[in-house]
Amino acid sequence: MELTIKVMRHEGAYFEPWIEDFVTDEAAGCIFHMHHSDITYEGAAYFAEALTQQARRWRPRPPDMPRGPRIPITMELRRHMEGERDAIIVDDREDGIHYVVRADLIKRHAGEVITGSQSERSPDWMRTPARYVVHLKAS
To answer: How many CA atoms lie within 13 A of 102 on its CB side?
Structure first.
């Protein structure tokens, strides 16, 4: 079963971002539902890609294994990124996860929802260290 993370933008009256877990015959994962003012169209696509890459490095802890520690997850918004095509850089390590994100893609509050939900869920998952970059798409 493929693990997939989706980020959906919604119009209308403002609402707090929320998360919906899903399981189908083909895929499992979650959907981050966000108001369109909290994340850009491009930001939703880039976060879906970065979060899916990250989720595929995680595995649920076996039922007989005790819960793990809650790991800190942080997000830094930057006006200027290391590489001109970098949109999101994820440092995924055993002791924590740090996102560096191009500031015009997401509002700080929405980023806090993503990092907070991941931190809350982290004791039930195991993962291996990684670092990966999501690049801007050529116009």
So the answer is: 22
Residues 108, 112: Cα–Cα separation, whole Å: 6
pLDDT for residue 4 is more than 90: no
Tokens coding 74 = 């942080």
Quick check: helix, strand or coil at residue 98?
strand
As a three-state string, the secondary structure of 30-93 is EEEEEECCCECHHHHHHHHHHHHHHHCCEEECCCCCCCCCCCCEEEEEECCCCCCCEEEEEEEE
Q: Are strands 2-10 and 27-35 parallel, antiparallel or unpaired?
A: parallel
Q: Which residue has the higher pLDDT, 74 or 137?
A: 74
Per-residue pLDDT tens over the stretch 15-37: 999 999 898 888 888 999 999 99
Q: How far is CA 26 from the centre of its chain?
A: 21
